[in-house]
Design brief:
Helix content is 53%, strand content 0%. It is mainly α. The protein has one domain (4-107). It is globular, with a radius of gyration of 13 Å. The chain starts with a helix and ends in a 5-residue tail after the last helix. The model has no long low-confidence stretch (mean pLDDT 78).
């Protein structure tokens, strides 16, 4: 869900080689790999939600929820621009968000 380059910039650069490999090959969470068209994948590239979102509001809601869940699961950080976008979605109370993601964003418990 979170591209490798984004993960690198969000803390993965400090990981061991084994942890980076585990992240790159992660299939434990249902959100780790999402089937998309080649065109969508090229458009998304390594951008965060501030710079790219799926076109439909429902897909945006799910995308942001899965993005946050991945960042939480792997203890990745978010820059200020990314955090601003994620908080805007958290404030809307989207149903696809894991409750821990909303709580963490609103309470800023982690380095997001």
């Amino acid at each position: 869900m979170v591209p490798l380059a984004e993960a690198w910039d969000s803390g993965a650069s400090a990981w061991t080689v084994a942890r980076r490999e585990a992240y790159a090959n992660d299939q434990e969470a249902h959100t780790s790999l999402v089937a998309v068209t080649a065109r969508t994948n090229r458009q998304k590239a390594d951008q965060d939600p501030r710079d790219w979102m799926p076109p439909s509001p429902e897909a945006q809601c799910r995308y942001v929820g899965e993005w946050v869940a991945t960042k939480l699961r792997w203890q990745l950080t978010a820059d200020d621009r990314e955090l601003e976008t994620l908080k805007a979605y958290a404030d809307q109370g989207h149903p696809h968000w894991p409750s821990s993601a909303t709580t963490t964003l609103k309470g800023q418990r982690l380095k997001l």
